[in-house]
Design brief:
1890 residues; elongated; 7-stranded mixed β-sheet; 68 helices; 10-stranded mixed β-sheet; 52% helix
């Protein structure tokens, strides 16, 4: 086959080998596949291709063997070797495919080994040993026609694997077994096929086989059963069948040289095909893979005689060699000293996602560990996985090489280890705590547990007492069956009869298999013990010889099905009892009976057993009858019967004709008889005493463990009655802690307030809370707590771990005892008294209080710590040192060690927030800040296996035993491996286990549903992934749980948190469950949708919402069907394999989900988790969760989003303002002819396109920002719509602004153009007259002097002006036009309004009068309540409305006046529209103002407008008066006239005039337009920009400054005139910023520098330089600057008059004046006062910044605090902190005292309010959203959140009362204690400015 493979794939092989031709040649030469001469000949060939071609020919000439060796060589060199060119599975060298490489890959090069079939070389030169020569010779004798490697070997059946001299002796009775045949395979151990010598050092002691054989290993099956006469021929046949006909002498020689010449010997790990040895000498040549144990071989010499001198040290030394060998194979050497820890195993890595199938030896221990931690029943399997290729079967299907279709070879044999070897190796390399966990898991899987571990790394074997300490068993003996009671006890303390099973000599009957059948019910077979017929059970043991295992049988209380009525323990000694006498002696001491399994007893065995004479134990023999052997055995047994006092029943015989069932029945019957005879009972703890007496080591006899035990017992020794101990010794967590929890919740819910004012009630609760904390702080540490603190604080880490574990064991044991006693009493009370309800209630309470664990001691520490912290905060500690400050650090260390920490105290239903926060903070510090976490939580009904699910999934240790159901919630930290952190997106996984919902013990409580809701809300809020665990037995409870979960998810969605949800349906085992339940999933989703809608209504949400809206849930992907945990009936049930596999699948999915999630969302770190936890808990404590949630993470994310949006908004606005500036300039530079009908349409199209682009850019920015994964953006996802709407609103606002501004600019320019046209005609006339005067003067004989010239010019000017038909614009009476429009607006309002208008005075008289309220303005006749209650409020409201409207109209009037145009009647129309719009908005519902209010308000506003517009009109007329404009030109014309007359070169002067009269005004106007925009841009990018980045930042800045100044007047302005205050504040800040450090001048220079560069560039442009005349030059220059500057045409005409200068010189002269021009503009600015700078700017910077921080301008309806929501169009208004309502003028109508309650407190209280919006009817504050639906008033996040305003109200209480004409508020005493520092700190926290 190999020959054919090379022939068929020649070209591909050549292409492959040409990649590294030299390496290939070197490799085949070094392995002896080609000779030295052939190698040198090939080396001389120049062409690589020719070299490779010749090499392949030479290889083929060597025959099939040589070809196979060559292909094996290629496989080691090329990991990606083509599968169809790989060496075949059968042939003369290899046993297995390379795919079966135990090191786990298709290439042995992967593990650094050279895998060349079954023949492996060590690479060292060693002399050939005599043994190898003998063996070689035997091969040649056995198969003279075959090459030395032609043997095909496979895994041996136990009967075929014997190598003992004793069993090789031919015995007559063995000939009688014709059914047992040999396969003819050579004697090969599985390890021989794969392991090379380089893998491990050879131990010469291991070369000798053991005399004794175990039936569970290959040695255990007697070879004597094989007909000796048949062996040679059968072997020869087999060898022949494996040989190749093409294997010639050259191939054989090469192969032989390759194997032996380089040092390969039969003692190495190479496989040599051999016949079964026929002599003792040959039998010694078994390969030294460690199969044979040194202590076994030491017991006999080669002749089979007993060696009388056996040293224990020698035995141990031999064992140590085997241990080292096995550890080396498993690569566990590093863990022999530095033990493997539980937390190392739990660490999440990429390996966690793998299927551990044990592809190689190195993977076996990890396969075992991970499968066992997952409770997988296949954990003990050590068979190595294999990959099947098509080529393995292609040739075989056509027939073998020799033409045979069938053969007895087993090509798929694999090298592995016995499962017990792997177990021993793992236990040897594990620390005590991991051993404990492993044995606990093994117990759950119903695996036999190691009781005595062989002497692996110790001189003596070890009793595994500590390792079993954690196992607790629960059973029902038949004595309690009728009462249906049960027993529950720690396994090591459970006293049961123990029966031991040992083997004497070799035996073909499997002892372990027999025991499994004895202990297994007929319908529920289970393999407790590993036996030879299990997977890998036939592999020889290397280090597990001498292991003693133990298994238990526990009855379930069912007489029909229980095998035994009482518990019984069964031990099993691995190996021959003769070789392990110490273990046997131990078993005789602890056992009630010892069963000895044997096939024969001879003289030697009789002598050995005779030493047992006088033993008190019963001995039973199980004889496997083997014909003649049995007859020879009987005499010896009869002798022993006399010595050991045995009777007939103590011999159990299995005849050849019997099957195992009969023997099992006999054995069970015997065991039942033993149990019923009240035998000696012992527990593991008692066994330890006997073990120490015999010199057996006990695992817990180490210093650290014993020291820890002493510390633990010092605490637990005093505990008898758990409930009493908790009351006396754990005092802080009793009634005090529960009272504190109630007070904390009442502070939020205020249910017991009644008529007490909210703030007074809160103060009372606060005092009560402090008093409880004082009582806690005054408690002294009890003796038990002192010792506990000493244990966790002072012991070294190892001892601390032991200490806490001992504490757990002792406390669990005590609690179990208490519970058992109380349950029994409860049952008695029910049966005897029945109606004694009081006693039953007491017992019920005692049962609830009888849980005691380490968590209770930690909880007590937390309370001591919290009490101390409270006293420190209240400054009650004085100079006392802090006693408990170190406790969070200790607890953080425990969390790092893997101990669970209590998050929610289930007894008090409260979180010790300060304690948990400080522990997590310490943890974050210890982790160096690397604490990103993914949080996984589980929810479900009580006792549905939530904790077990987590324990199985992650290997955790949450309590699951009876009576220890989780109360509250516990969290455990699991580390993620560093190389996996980036992929998984986190450093740790935080797993939170919760108490069951719908707990029966809470069902009677009134608030049990609320309790469950709180728990679900909290844990779902904290989690990234929530597992909802649903057992399918109770549909009603499942529905209730779903309702609770839906409520919690709805709340999370509302606050921006959307965790993933996995629904786990337990106890569903049908393979078609997923498909069958498709309809159920659909129905479940429909139910969930209905529940979501109902929950939304309960949470007072009006929107339509479905389940998928509120959480990440896909019914197909996120539904899991998991079988029940147990396979069978407990307590003897094992873990269901389907359960383990399903949980593993779920775990893999979760890791995959985390990996995908990390790509789009960053994980929370510990500080974020702390913040989230605190805000969640605070919200949970309020009844209305959604409106109570406050979180700084959300606030920070929202603030950052607002800041970003403000930046994008300003960029958009800035771009539009700059465009408008240029558009306006362009319009002003156009003539009347250019401003045609299409001008505005063109601008309109341009505006729409720009606005569309700008809007899309903003939307894209918003989209990109949300997709960027920036911190916690998912929390503000719900606000995205607000900002999208705000963008649209901004676009519409800018559109209106730009179009109105453009339209107005066009209209103004058209008006100016008419005037300019007339002006141009006048100028032409003037120029003709000047020109005529110039000619006239030049014609005179005498030159005129300057004075004469000036008189002539003045005379001509006056005459010309008199002659011109100057047309001035008519002066209009604007006030009359406005009055006319007012009358038209009110013409249909009735006679009263008409009469008022007739009586009204001239509009201009109103401009000097302020608007004042009058009684007739209010119309309250429709109110049914006393007017005195409402008049004042309505009066104030109307007054505020009028004031606001007047200010808004003034701003509009100012904008129009500042535009510089003429009055247009549309201005009045727009004003009237604004007034009517506001009045209409105010009049929604019932109106309370009269018609006179509207008329007088309009008269007042339009009166002011009339005066302002009249002046505007007059200023326009004055500015555009033709005569005035001509007079302004007179000096310039005279100057030009004079220069022309005197024929001066006026080029430089003309250039100066151009700069001074044309460019300078244009530059001034340019700066007026641009400077405001640049100021805003600069200010927002300065260091102070953070204050104006968002409304929250601005509020903090203002309030902090006000606190520093403590100016009452400023507070009044801030509260009552917020808009004016903000404007004034901003203007002051701008002044301070720009005038105190000359920053404004820098900006001005920058603005001017930009335009000056453009002017310079235009002057130097080729277009201007190419001009032929000055007129053409200036025209081109103005055209180049038309978008930037508006150059006066009047002044330009003068410059052009008779200007014959050179264009180049004129341009140069202009450039020379530019510097002077720039300074002139700046000096003009410097002359202005600081107060006039900003008002003169066209773009007002203070207004733009005001818009940025002012927001919507809405104020809280109660306390008048301004809204802080971002964007311009948000659905809801909110503020970070609210104020006492008295600051918003609220008062008690009866006492006239200012109200000091806070609306943030009132909305959660039982208080009521009434005002004009409620028609002065009383309504609960809780229903405030009925009247103010757009306001969200959230409760204060903490008690001190509103300290700032409490401090201010108390500080200025009397001043505010005086200002508001009220009585001072009667403030709570608590407010007087607030300091300025506390006030400042409160706003730091509220505005997240820490």
């Amino acid at each position: 086959m190999a020959f054919e493979t090379i022939r068929r794939g020649r070209e591909r092989l050549i292409a492959l080998l040409l990649t590294t031709p030299d390496s290939v040649l070197d490799e085949v030469a070094s392995l002896g596949i080609v000779s030295e001469e052939e190698y040198e000949a090939l080396e001389k060939l120049p062409e690589p291709r020719e070299r490779i071609r010749r090499l392949l020919i030479k290889i083929q000439r060597k025959g099939e063997c040589g070809c196979e060796l060559f292909l094996q060589c290629l496989q080691s060199l090329f990991p990606d070797f083509l599968s169809d060119l790989q060496p075949p599975a059968r042939g003369c060298v290899t046993q297995t495919n390379d795919a079966e490489n135990p090191e786990g890959g298709t290439s042995s090069q992967k593990n650094g080994r050279e895998h060349l079939g079954a023949a492996l070389t060590s690479g060292k030169d060693e002399l050939e040993t005599p043994e190898s020569a003998v063996l070689h010779k035997e091969n040649e004798l056995g198969s003279p026609a075959t090459c030395p490697f032609s043997g095909n070997v496979g895994p041996q059946e136990p009967e075929d694997a014997m190598s003992s001299e004793k069993n090789d002796a031919e015995k007559p009775e063995e000939l009688e077994k014709p059914d047992v045949l040999s396969s003819g395979n050579g004697l090969v151990t599985p390890n021989s096929a794969k392991c090379t010598m380089r893998d491990r050092p050879e131990n010469p002691e291991t070369a000798s086989p053991s005399n004794k054989n175990d039936p569970e290993s290959p040695e255990g099956a007697e070879s004597s059963e094989i007909p000796a006469a048949a062996e040679p021929s059968e072997r020869a046949d087999d060898a022949g069948s494996g040989s190749s006909p093409s294997c010639g002498e050259e191939g054989k020689a090469a192969a032989a040289k390759w194997n032996f010449a380089d040092g390969g010997t039969p003692d190495s790990d190479a496989v040599v095909a051999e016949s079964r040895p026929q002599t003792p000498e040959v039998a010694m040549l078994v390969e030294s893979s460690g199969t044979e144990r040194p202590d076994d071989s030491a017991s006999t010499d080669r002749s089979g005689t007993e060696d009388p001198e056996i040293s224990p040290n020698k035995v141990h030394g031999g064992k140590k060699g085997a241990v080292e060998t096995v550890l080396s194979k498993l690569r566990l050497e590093n863990f022999q000293n530095g033990k493997l820890r539980l937390r190392d195993l739990l660490e999440i890595s990429s390996e966690s996602l793998k299927d551990w199938t044990g592809l190689d030896l190195v993977g076996l221990p990890w396969h075992f560990l991970r499968k066992l931690m997952a409770l997988n029943g296949t954990a003990r399997s050590t068979s190595l996985g294999q990959e099947t290729s098509d080529e393995d079967t292609s040739k075989d299907e056509e027939g073998g090489i020799g033409g045979d279709v069938f053969s007895l070879r087993e090509d798929d044999s694999r090298v592995s280890l016995h499962p017990l070897d792997v177990l021993c190796a793992v236990l040897l390399c594990s620390d005590g705590f991991l051993q404990q966990e492993l044995l606990s898991k093994m117990s759950m899987c119903q695996f036999a547990l190691p009781l005595l571990l062989p002497a692996l790394d110790t001189p003596r074997c070890t009793l595994m007492l500590w390792a079993m300490r954690d196992i607790v068993k629960k059973w029902r003996p038949h004595s309690l069956a009728e009462s249906r009671g049960f027993r529950e006890e720690s396994l090591v303390l459970t006293k049961v009869p123990t029966v031991s099973f040992v083997r004497l000599g070799s035996c073909s009957l499997s002892k372990s298999k027999l025991l499994n059948e004895v202990l297994s019910p007929s319908q529920q077979h289970h393999d407790f013990f590993v036996h030879r017929d299990m997977e890998s059970g036939n592999i020889p043991r290397e280090m597990a010889e001498g292991l003693v295992e133990i298994a238990w049988y526990f009855p379930a209380g069912r007489e029909n099905s229980d095998l035994f009525p009482e518990p019984v323990a069964v031990t099993n000694l691995r190996g021959d009892m003769e070789s392990h006498w110490l273990q046997f002696s131990f078993l005789t001491e602890i056992s009630s009976a010892v069963f000895i399994l044997t096939e024969s007893v001879a003289e030697k065995e009789h002598a050995l057993l005779s030493s047992l004479q006088g033993s008190a134990r019963k001995y039973y023999f199980i004889l496997n009858s083997q014909g003649q052997k049995a007859k020879e055995t009987l005499p010896y047994l009869n002798k022993l019967a006399l010595l050991l006092d045995m009777n007939k029943s103590q011999l159990l015989v299995k005849q050849n004709s019997d099957n195992s069932t009969e023997l099992v029945k006999k054995l069970r019957s015997t065991l039942r008889g033993l149990i019923s005879s009240s035998p000696k009972s012992t527990c593991i703890g008692d066994m330890a005493v006997m073990a120490r007496e015999l010199g057996v080591q006990v695992d817990e006899d180490n210093g650290a463990c014993q020291t820890a035990l002493e510390h633990a017992e010092a605490i637990t020794a005093d505990i008898q009655d758990v409930a009493r101990y908790k009351r006396k010794m754990l005092r802080l967590q009793g009634d005090l802690w529960k009272s504190l929890a109630k007070v904390e919740k009442e502070l939020c819910r205020m249910k017991g307030q009644r008529d007490v004012p909210p703030e007074d009630y809160r103060s009372q609760l606060r005092e009560r809370w402090l008093e409880l904390r004082r009582q806690q702080n005054q408690c002294d540490l009890t003796d038990g707590m002192l010792k506990f603190i000493s244990g966790i604080g002072q012991l070294p880490p190892a001892e601390k771990h032991y200490f806490l574990t001992w504490m757990k064991f002792h406390l669990d044991g005590i609690a179990r005892g208490n519970l058992s006693r109380l349950r029994a009493e409860y049952k008695d009370q029910c049966h005897t008294l029945g109606d004694d309800a009081q006693r039953l209630a007491e017992l019920d309470e005692l049962i609830s209080a009888s849980s005691l664990g380490v968590e209770h001691f930690m909880r007590e520490l937390g309370q001591f710590y919290e009490a101390e912290c409270s006293m420190v905060k209240e400054q009650k500690m004085g100079n006392q040192p802090r006693q408990f400050i170190h406790l969070p650090g200790i607890t953080a260390d425990l969390m790092l060690e893997g101990f669970p920490m209590e998050l929610i105290d289930g007894d008090a239903s409260n979180i010790p927030l300060q304690w948990v926060t400080d522990v997590l903070t310490e943890l974050h510090a210890k982790l160096g800040g690397r604490s990103r976490m993914v949080v996984i939580t589980v929810l479900g009904v009580q006792s549905t296996g939530k904790s077990t699910l987590l324990n199985t999934m992650f290997g955790l240790q949450f309590a699951v035993s009876s009576g220890r159901c989780t109360r509250g919630a516990f969290m455990t930290l699991i580390k993620v491996a560093e190389n996996f952190q980036q992929e998984l997106g986190c450093d740790f996984i935080l797993v939170i286990d919760t108490e069951g919902l719908k707990a029966p013990e809470l069902a009677t409580l009134e608030d049990s549903y609320e309790h469950d809701n709180e728990l679900a809300t909290l844990v779902i809020g904290l989690s990234d992934i929530t597992i909802v665990n649903m057992a399918m037995e109770n549909a009603t409870e499942m529905k209730d749980v779903l309702q609770i979960v839906v409520h919690a998810f709805l709340r999370m969605e509302e606050i921006g948190h959307k965790p993933n949800c996995q629904f786990v349906h337990q106890n569903i085992s049908d393979v078609s469950a997923h498909d069958q339940n498709m309809r159920d999933r659909k129905h479940l989703l429909e139910q969930l949708n209905e529940m979501t809608k109902a929950a939304a209504r309960m949470e007072k949400q009006s929107r339509e919402v479905t389940f998928s809206d509120i959480m990440d849930y896909d019914p197909e992907k996120h539904s899991w069907y998991i079988p029940g945990l147990w396979h069978g009936v407990p307590p003897m049930a094992s873990v269901n394999m389907g359960y383990s596999e399903s949980v593993t699948e779920l775990k893999k999915y979760l890791f995959g989900f985390m990996r995908n999630r990390s790509l789009c969302r960053s994980s929370k770190d510990i500080p974020q988790f702390i913040e989230w936890m605190g805000s969640l808990w605070n919200a949970v404590k309020h009844e209305n969760f959604i409106f109570s949630f406050r979180n700084s993470l959300v606030a920070e994310a929202y603030t950052q989003l607002s800041v970003k949006y403000a930046e994008w908004e300003w960029d958009f606005r800035k771009e539009m303002h700059l465009w408008m500036s240029k558009a306006e300039t362009t319009i002003q530079n156009q003539s009347l002819d250019d401003l045609g009908p299409g001008t505005f349409e063109r601008l309109k199209l341009e505006v729409h396109q720009m606005l569309h682009d700008g809007e899309q850019k903003m939307l894209q920015n918003l989209q990109s920002y949300f997709e960027s994964g920036a911190g916690n953006l998912h929390l503000v996802e719900k606000y995205r719509e607000d900002f999208l709407r705000s963008t649209t609103i901004l676009r519409h606002e800018l559109e209106n602004y730009l179009l109105c501004k453009s339209e107005e600019a066009i209209r103004i320019q058209k008006g100016r153009s008419k005037i300019d046209h007339l002006q141009a005609q006048y100028v032409k006339t003037i120029e003709r007259k000047v020109d005529g005067l110039l000619r006239d003067c030049r014609e005179r004989e005498k030159e005129l002097k300057q004075k004469e010239l000036e008189r002539e010019f003045d005379k001509m000017w006056k005459e010309t002006i008199a002659e011109l038909p100057l047309e001035s614009l008519p002066l209009r009476q604007i006030h009359k036009n406005i009055r006319y429009q007012l009358c038209k607006d009110l013409e249909n309002r009735g006679s009263l309004v008409s009469q008022m208008l007739r009586k009204a005075q001239n509009l201009l008289t109103y401009q000097s009068k302020p608007f004042c309220m009058k009684k007739e303005y209010l119309d309250l006749s429709w109110y049914r309540v006393p007017l005195e209650l409402v008049t004042q409020e309505y009066w104030r409201d109307a007054e505020e409305f009028a004031k606001t409207l007047v200010e808004e109209c003034r701003r509009y009037i100012g904008q129009k006046v500042h535009s510089g145009g003429d009055y247009d009647q549309t201005y009045c129309q727009e004003l009237l529209w604004m007034i009517n719009e506001r009045l209409q908005q105010k009049a929604t519902g019932k109106t309370y103002t009269s018609a006179s209010f509207e008329v007088d308000l309009k008269l007042h506003i339009l009166g002011e407008a009339a005066g302002a517009f009249q002046k505007m009109h007059e200023d326009f007329l004055k500015k555009n008066d033709p005569q005035r404009r001509l007079e302004e030109l007179r000096p310039q014309y005279f100057s030009t006239f004079r220069d022309l007359y005197y024929e001066k070169d006026a080029c430089q002067k003309r250039a100066f005039d151009f700069c001074d009269r044309c460019l300078k005004p244009a530059l001034w106007e340019y700066m007026q337009k641009r400077l405001g925009i640049e100021i805003v841009d600069d200010f927002l990018s300065s260091g102070e920009s953070i204050e104006y980045g968002s409304r929250s930042f601005f509020q903090f800045t203002v309030q902090k400054k006000l606190l520093e100044e403590k100016n009452f007047a400023n507070y009044v302005k801030y509260i009552n005139g917020y808009e004016e205050f903000v404007k004034s504040w901003i203007q002051t800040r701008l002044f301070d910023h720009y005038f105190e450090n000359e920053r404004l001048e820098e900006l001005e220079r920058a603005v001017l520098a930009t335009i000056m560069k453009k002017i310079q560039h235009a002057l130097e442009s080729s277009e201007c330089k190419a001009a032929l005349t000055i007129s053409e030059f200036l025209d081109r220059l103005c055209q180049a600057l038309r978008k930037e500057l508006v150059i006066s045409k009047d002044s330009l005409e003068v410059i052009l008059f008779r200007n014959t200068a050179s264009v180049g010189q004129f341009s140069a002269n202009i450039q020379s004046f530019l510097r002077q021009l720039e300074e002139g503009v700046l000096s003009k600015r410097a002359e202005l006062s600081r107060e006039t700078v900003f008002p003169q700017l066209q773009f007002k910077p203070q207004d733009e910044i005001f818009l940025r921080v002012f927001g919507c301008g809405k104020q809280c309806p109660f306390c008048k605090v301004p809204c802080e929501a971002g964007g311009s169009d948000h659905k809801e208004h909110f503020a970070s902190v609210h104020r006492p309502q008295g600051l918003g003028r609220y008062r008690n109508l009866t006492s006239n005292r200012l109200v000091y309650s806070l609306c943030s407190s009132d909305v959660v209280s039982s208080m009521r309010f009434r005002n004009r919006h409620t028609a002065f009817q009383w309504h609960p504050y809780k229903d405030y959203r009925h009247f103010y639906p757009t306001w969200r008033i959230q409760p204060d996040p903490s008690i001190g959140a509103s300290d700032y305003w409490k401090y201010i109200f108390r500080k200025f209480s009397r001043q505010f009362a005086s200002e508001y004409s009220a009585e001072p508020a009667d403030l709570p005493p608590e407010w007087k204690k607030i300091t300025k520092e506390q006030a400042l700190q409160s706003i730091r926290e509220v505005f997240n400015m820490e």
